[in-house]
Amino acid sequence: MSDVLTTTWTDLNxxxxxxxxxxxxxxxxxxxxxxxxxxxxxACNGSGYYDNNGSPPCGNCDGTGKERVSPAEHQRQMExxxxxxxxxxxxxxxxxxxxx
Length: 100
Fold this sequence. Notes:
3 helices; mainly alpha; 8% strand; 48% helix
């Protein structure tokens, strides 16, 4: 038998393997997936390409048009956006030309 099969077989018989692997999966999930937001890429504006003239896929988002942002960074961006909207409302009033 090869060393790979022997090593794998030994690991499969470890009674704590399931709990150890589950703990690792849980830590990974809460560190990199839970609460993270997908927002429109700032470099390509969500299109996945820098421009429409045959350019390569966006290097910032790998051509997906979305980038993953941590919960803290997302909260900071939402607060800044709220401040910008309040400032624009003070400047332009209800007739804001930049409102979507």
